[in-house]
Amino acid sequence: MVKKYYPGETKEERKARKLREKATGKKDPKPIPKTTTVREPKKSPPSTPKPALQQPKPQVIPPIADKTDLGDPDRWSKGFEPQAKRYIACLKHGSKYNADYVNTLYAMCKRNMTLPFEFVCFTENQTDLNKEIRIEPLPQHRGLQGWWYKPMFFNPDLILQGTVLFIDLDVIIFRNIDKLFTYQPGKFCVIRDFNRKNNPSWNKFNSSCFRLEIGQHAQVYRNFMMNPVVNSRKFHGDQDWLYDQVKDNFVFWPDEWLQSYKWEMRNKPTMTRVDGERNFATPGVPEICPDTSIAVFHGEPNPHNCVDPWCKENWYV
Questions:
Q1: Is position 316 within any domain?
Q2: Structural domain of residue 230, as residue ranges?
Q3: Among 15, 90, 110, 180, which is most exposed with the fewest C-beta within 10 angstroms?
């Protein structure tokens, strides 16, 4: 007879079971076999990340337009007012300087100004002038020519009204000139004549660059126009007339700002003739002060024919 064992039951366990069944008269229940399968732990579903807290968007409040803001005298430093009328003016009369000089002066001003301005040329001949330049007709006076039209800028009834910065055509502007509008606002400013190189106490005028408010020193114009021919013959040049008429209420530009190219920046080099015109004997490099913005040419050479490479690099449209 085949002995029957419960699954996983040993011989001794079977004997013990049979004795129990004999004593009790009942069969032991068949045990449930143990499984060897390893069950993986029940995985919890991945948690959904909570959305980040949204930062409230800042409330954008549009600026309120203040119609009086631009004209508020307490908001802007003198000379910087955005609505101020600023003019850079030049004078072209006769054939000494051609249109290239006017166009180049305009280009140099644009490169070296950040304040808004209008460029105006007073001339009797607007041929070949840049179309962006405002042209004003030059009133003709018999017997007058060239620089003797400068007293016109002191006419209180001049067509320009505001601040006028007059600049001669024979200059090189190579650094920012905003300061010529913001310096000593409201005052008449003029160059201390370049004879200061030889005489440090020299206090006469050079009119290559001056600034005025229209209406200032009106006597310069009115007295001159009483007899323009006689006055132009009596005085060597317009700056001598200007010095004779303006005795107070003026300031000199700082000497470093505007320098004589020939005397101060090139220290009076040896001169010779090049192509029939006076010029420097040898090309050179100018000595430039940290605050100099304008090189002023007087006599010869002129910016367009100076032998120095520096001039060619800085005098251009």
A1: no
A2: 86-258
A3: 15
CATH of the domain at 192: 3.90.550.10
Residue 279 in any domain: the answer is no
Q: Give the integer Cα–Cα distance in Å for 286 and 264.
A: 9
**Mapping DSSP to helix (H, G, I), strand (E, B) and coil, where does residue 100 land?**
helix
pLDDT tens, position by position, 202-250: 999 999 999 999 999 999 999 999 999 999 999 999 999 999 999 999 9
* CA distance linking residue 154 with residue 120, whole number of Å: 15
Cα 48 to Cα 45, 51, 52: the distances in Å are 9, 9, 12
Dihedral, CA of residue 292, residue 194, residue 247 and residue 184, to nearest 10: 0
Strand order in the sheet with 163-167: 134-137, 118-123, 86-92, 163-167, 205-213, 188-192, 250-252
Total domain count for the chain? 1
Tokens of 278: 């006076």
Tokens 């959904």 belong to residue: 48
Residue type, 23: A
In a domain, residue 38? The reply is: no
Evaluate whether 225 touches 218 at the Cβ level (below 8 Å).
no
pLDDT for the residue numbered 123: 96
- So what's the pLDDT on residue 24? 79
- Residue 27, domain member (yes or no): no
DSSP string, 117-182: -EEEEEES--TT--TTSEEEEPPP-TT--GGGGGGGGG-TT-S--SEEEEE-SSEEE-S--THHHH
CA distance 10 to 184: 119
pLDDT in tens, 147-172: 899 999 999 999 999 999 999 999 99
What's the pTM value of the predicted model, to 2 decimals? 0.75
Residue among 225, 71, 48, 256 at smallest CA distance from 153 = 225
pLDDT of residue 142: 76
Q: Which of 46-50, 54-58, 194-198 bottoms out in mean pLDDT, i.e. has the lowest?
A: 54-58
Question: Residue 250's beta-bridge partner residues?
Answer: 188
